[in-house]
Structures are given as structure tokens and as C-alpha cells.
Please model this.
Amino acid sequence: MMPAFINPTIVAHLVLIFAVMNMLVLSSAFMVWMERKVCAYIQDRVGPNRVGFEGLLQPFADVFKLLLKEELIPKSADKLLFTLAPIISVAAALTAFSVVPFGTETTLFGLLREPLRLEVTDVNVAVLVIFAITSMGVYGIVLAGWSSNSKYSLLGGLRSSAQMISYEISYGLALAAVVMMAGSLSLREIVLNQSGYWWHIIPRWYLFLQPLGFLIFFTAGVAETNRAPFDFPEAEQELVAGYHTEYSSMSFGLFFLAEYVNMVTVSAVATSLYLGGWLGPFLPDWLGWMWFLLKTLALLFFYVWMRWTLPRYRYDQLMEFGWKYLLPVAILNLIATAALVIWLG
Amino acid sequence: MNPVLFYLFAAVAVIASLLVIGQRNPMHSVMLLIVSFGALSGLYVLLDAPFTAVTQIIVYAGAIMVLFLFVVMLLNAHTEDEAVPQTLGPHGMKIAVVLSLALAAEVVWALSRVGAASFSTDSAAAGAISSVARIGTGIFTTHAFAFEVTSVLILVAMVGAVVIARKEH
Model:
């Protein structure tokens, strides 16, 4: 007889966790390919097209190359923290996705007695959990910068911590406005609050109620993930490669993995908060995750598009923008939302 | 509460906190303090207070410790490898011993007064703790005065820091 803890629901959960982890890693491989392809077309080139169909296997070739490279640790580096930093980055990036719901409940065609929710875990403070884990991710970068014992790395790490603290506030205030409208901190409830249509055409997404909030959230999200035009921690013209200058082999690869997984997470959270998550027309309920993928992919494409279109700001411009423009606008947005929520009951 | 998890988190919190003061390298101390905060947050989860747990991470591990790291990095604080000169005289030593003994006695006295009965196992009460709405209403009604006083205190500290740090023109 099987022990009590091996029941179909628990097995299904384990499979789900395994699948989500692997999908995240695969999606970051796909993102590397998409980035190189989109960048190539924007610059009127062809891009990777040798390994696999249209170069789709190029990221895997890159990873194998990195795995075979020698791992170098600078002599004067703090060995423990130097090794720990990329691990912290990747762990934080992968954990943040655990509370993002990406579909409705399913019984897998009657295979399970209790329906399985398509998310790793449903906590009633999901929005805050994402916020907390994102704020842990900064340690990976800061520690990498400090432990390398190199001036470029240190400057990259310092910039990164200042940047993340500055933009986290606006990020949190934009989140708070959505939480106020939904009256819940659970991402699943926030998504379900966006079901239905206005005049049978326009979906009731928070994007239309919170256009400013969406812009603030996404801008701060780009800054949080250190992407162009806010990629100061690794600004190559000034800092060689910033916080990961001294890293080689797969530990360098891990920082890349973390960056791409973080982009996927920010896009997935933006999809849940503002674009109605897995809700969409035409498809049956159990295929809702396709809508989720499509919306997330659209945001990710925007991320890449922006990187190859906009030049990097100057560092003082970044700080000025964060504190003098983004933050006041975010506070105004929050107050206006609060007033509207009270006025409309 | 799961006793295995409780002892695990408690052990991590205590050991990490002890190691914080045992480190010569300020950076390692900061990291160990974060580990300790993480373990505390785990204990809050076991107590059915997920909101407190997440707030602990966001405020302490996420915001305050990043500032700590920032300061350590900016000052480029070196490890305290050199023998630290004894700054406490014999009298200072005596006072320190008396004070720490007094603190220990105080803690023992306070803990012995707290009986097992005061820990409520009522699940309705536990639900109230974890309700974000209840915490919010509590802060802005019953505890509004304490909340506002705290924020004024933080504001004063901030203004003080700016005044001290500002260079005379």
C-alpha cells in the first residue's frame, strides 16, 4: 500500500513545481534567442541562424560553452561571497515566480479528483511576497560587486543598490494602487477581478483604470531588472561589465539567467496585475494559460525592443528621474486611486 | 505549529545572530543578520502571520540591510584583523558586567512571568492576526497615536542625519 502522502494531488503539485522551474529556465533561453534575433533585425542583420532551426538552439550551445570554460576566482576576492552571489541572484529570480497564477483550475481531464490550480502556491499576500523576493535579488548583485574586490565591480554594485532602492518605492506604490482597486493582495483574486467587459468589447483590465500605474510599474520594473535604458550596474562604456566583470564560466551565465528570469517575472506580474492574466476571449477556460503566455511574451518583446531602441541615460539623470518625477507621480496616482475608490464605493 | 520547523528556524536564528557578533568581517556580519531575519520570518509564517513575515523581509532584510551594505561598501570598512586596543578600563569592565547581569536577570524574570496560557491557540484569533484589513484598521484607529509618533520620530532622525551630514557653505 502507498504511504498516505503519495496521493495524486501532491504528485501533481510536484510535477507542477518541476515544470514551472524548467519552463522559467527554458523561457530565459528563448529570451536570449529572441533578444539576439530582434536586435539583429533592428540593426539590419540576420542574427544567429546556424545552430538548430533559425538558430533556436544557439542559447544551448552558449550554455555548453560556458559550462566547459574554466572558472576563475580573483586572488583577492572574498571566496565565499563571490561564490554565493550568483546563487542568490538565481534563487531569488526563480522563487519570485512561485506565487504567479497562470491559469484556472484544472483536473487534467478528470485525472485528479481535486482540481489543481495552475500556480505553484496561492498565498493571500502574493503581491507582497513578490515584492519581498525581488528586494532580495539586489543582494546577488551587490555582493558580486563587493566580493570581486575590483573597482569596476564595486561601482556597479553600488549603482545597482542605489538604483534598486530608488525605484522599488515607485514600484511598490504602483502595486498599492492596484491592490486598493482589487481589495485583495492575492494575485489570483486580482486577476479574477478583471473578468468581464465594458460595452461587450473592452476587457475590464486594470490597464484601462490604471494607465499611469502601468507605466510607473513597467518603468520601475525595467530599472529593477537592470535593463536598458537603465542598465547602469553593467554599463560597458564606463564600467567594463559592472558587477560581473570578474565572473567567468557558468557563474557569469547564472547572472544572465537571473536577469532573464527576472524579466519574465516582471512581465508575468504586469500581465496579472494590469492585463487580466489568463483571461481572454475565444479560448476555453482550461487553455487560459495560452493568453497568459501571449500577453507575457508581448511585454517581453517590448523589453527587447526598448533595449535596442533607446540609449542609456546618464546616471544622475536616472536618479533625478526616479526621485523627482516617477515617485511624485506614483504618490499622486495612489492618492487619486484612493479618492476614486472611496468616491465610487 | 510544526515543532520540527520551529526548532529549525529557531536554531538558525539563534546561531546566525551569535555569528553576527563573532565576525571580524563587517560584510559577513551583515549577511548573517539577513539569514537571522529570514529565520524570524519563517517563525512568523509558522505563527499564521504571513503578513508580518513578508513585512519582516521587505522592511528589514530588503530595505534596511541594503542600506547597511551600502554603508559598509561606501566606507570600504576593513576587517578588524588588527588587535583591537582595550578601550574599557577596569571600571568600565565592572559596569559592563553588572549591566549585562542585570539584563539577563530581567529577561529571565520577564520570561518566567509569561505562562504557557498566554499563548492563544484559538484559530479565530490567529486568523485575525493574519488579516491585512484588520492590521490596517488597527494601525489607523486604535494605535493611530503610536503610529504617528513613530513616524514623527523617524522624520526627526532623518532631519538630524541631513543636518549632521550637510557641509557648511
